[in-house]
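PROTEIN DESIGN WORKSHEET
SECTION A - STRUCTURE
LENGTH: 115
TOKENS:
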């Protein structure tokens, strides 16, 4: 499997299958601090990022919004004082796709620019 930083987002059609458990575990090896959760019978990636204040959390999510808009793949963002929770999954297939892991990796890269 290639490094996630070298991977590109693919078009994902409703008939595209979700990743298998084995594939999910393989991709999880590339991510730290992310969890696979199940919500509304769909697997999703989740990570909580910590910040010194509310404005940093807002600026971080603004960057994630720009990034996601550029590839037309959008997360759920929850902003609170000093933290932002990011959830990635592929809505059109109702679960996880390689794109979600690519975007999680890119989200981590954005976060590093805030440290």
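SECTION B - SEQUENCE
RESIDUE ASSIGNMENT:
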């Amino acid at each position: 499997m290639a490094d996630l930083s070298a991977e590109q987002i693919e078009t994902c059609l409703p008939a595209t299958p979700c990743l298998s458990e084995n594939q999910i575990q393989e991709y999880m090896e590339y991510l730290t601090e992310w969890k696979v959760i199940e919500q509304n019978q769909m697997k999703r990636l989740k990570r909580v990022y910590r910040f010194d204040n509310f404005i940093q959390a807002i600026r971080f999510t603004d960057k994630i919004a720009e990034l996601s808009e550029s590839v037309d793949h959008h997360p759920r963002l929850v902003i609170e004082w000093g933290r932002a929770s990011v959830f990635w999954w592929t809505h059109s297939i109702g679960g996880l796709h390689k794109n979600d892991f690519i975007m999680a990796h890119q989200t981590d890269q954005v976060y590093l620019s805030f440290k």
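SECTION C - NOTES
The chain has three helices and four strands.
The longest strand covers residues 42-50.
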